[in-house]
Write a sequence for this structure.
């Protein structure tokens, strides 16, 4: 069993379902389903709604990046986004499609002050089945290196791992709205975030701190 597999299985084990249920509670303090379901999520175009959605995950783009993404380079980003499939999961990603996804990722990274976290959250908003959210909490908790996509693709290629993640799915996070990747993201973040809301959720679920 690889280290990443062990970590994933740990974070989706009990009390993951209770934590994830709190994360996706639309009456609670977290992003819930709003990040994924906020309207005007054009398949092949970044919109102002996407920029609003990522603020729910505690990131914002600076004005120069907004103007390039939505105005001066909008056509380029739409072309790059259109090349990334929206109907496959990360573990089924082909090498060819990975090239397209990486092209979009690195184009986003060229925007001012858009690093690994901002780029991943923008892409996860547009391709939730394919692109994992990668921020400091997730990186540390899963001990991810630079190539997080490859590591997670290999790990989630194991049906038993996916089954374990799906077993933590609460009723307020239906599969037609919330991807397997988002479940994993929520489970890890709720277990490891040092935010006051996450700590309170852990206490409510029987965990200390």
């Amino acid at each position: 069993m690889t280290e990443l597999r062990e970590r994933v299985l740990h974070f989706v084990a009990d009390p993951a379902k209770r934590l994830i249920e709190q994360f996706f509670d639309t009456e609670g303090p977290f992003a819930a389903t709003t990040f994924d379901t906020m309207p005007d999520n054009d398949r092949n175009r970044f919109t102002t709604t996407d920029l609003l959605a990522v603020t729910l995950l505690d990131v914002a783009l600076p004005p120069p990046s907004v103007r390039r993404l939505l105005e001066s380079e909008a056509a380029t980003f739409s072309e790059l986004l259109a090349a990334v499939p929206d109907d496959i999961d990360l573990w089924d990603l082909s090498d060819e499609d990975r090239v397209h996804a990486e092209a979009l990722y690195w184009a986003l990274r060229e925007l001012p002050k858009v690093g690994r976290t901002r780029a991943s959250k923008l892409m996860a908003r547009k391709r939730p089945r394919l692109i994992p959210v990668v921020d400091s909490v997730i990186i540390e908790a899963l001990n991810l290196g630079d190539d997080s996509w490859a590591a997670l693709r290999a790990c989630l290629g194991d049906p038993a791992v996916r089954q374990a993640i799906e077993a933590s799915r609460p009723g307020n996070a239906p599969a037609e709205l919330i991807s397997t990747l988002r479940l994993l993201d929520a489970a890890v973040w709720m277990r490891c975030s040092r935010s006051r809301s996450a700590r309170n959720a852990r206490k409510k679920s029987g965990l200390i701190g």
